[in-house]
Amino acid sequence: MHGRRKLGLDYTPLFRFLISKVGTRWDDVFSEAVARLDRPDPIFWLVARQPHERRRYVLIGESSFYNGLYVDEAGTLQQVDPLVGPSSLVPLCRCCTHTFNGTPFTRPFAGSGMPLDPDAEAQVEATVNR
Ligand SMILES: [Zn+2]
């Protein structure tokens, strides 16, 4: 059983907004996002500030996953891995509804101790060798 730890604020609308803006100018996205927030920090839970912070996906709270984002050299907001999505990951437990960008995972719970991201090792390998 996992307790449902409530965050002080629900940033789901922010995360959905950021993901909807992939492919657009980061300066505009940031200005619009920060104007709606009491603090800018949650923006950078998804958007990597440094190359080493880039993640294929980010876990928010117990079981809400989102695409990891970054800003490319041209100043455009990009997904770290455009292929990762609701059908990529395996739920970590039976008791929580796991979602990716708000959409429930399509893979079923496969037992405790099973990897969250079965494709990850192959992907990491591919990234390193690129
Ligand atoms: Zn659970």
Q: Distance between termini?
A: 41 Å
Class by SSE composition: alpha+beta
Order of helix and strand elements from N to C terminus: HHHEEEEEEH
Task: Indicate the radius of gyration in whole angstroms.
Answer: 15 Å
Helix content: 10-25%
**Shape, please?**
globular
Strand order of the largest sheet: 1-2-5-6
Count of alpha/pi helices:
4
How would you characterize the largest beta sheet? Answer: 4 strands, mixed
Give average pLDDT, whole number.
89
Task: Name the beta content range.
Answer: 5-15%
Question: What is the topological layout?
Answer:
Blueprint: H1 12-20, H2 26-35, H3 43-46, E1 57-60, E2 64-67, E3 69-71, E4 77-79, E5 99-100, E6 103-104, H4 120-128
Zinc ion (ZN) is lined by residues 2, 93, 95-96.
Describe the protein in words:
With 130 residues, the chain is an alpha+beta fold. It has one domain (12-128). The protein is built from four helices and six strands. It has helices spanning 12-20, 26-35, 43-46, 120-128; strands at 57-60, 64-67, 69-71, 77-79, 99-100, 103-104. The chain has a four-stranded mixed beta sheet with strand order 1-2-5-6, with no helix packed on it. It is globular and about 45 Å long. The N and C termini lie far apart (41 Å). The model has no long low-confidence stretch (mean pLDDT 89). It binds zinc ion. Zinc ion (ZN) binds at residues 2, 93, 95-96.
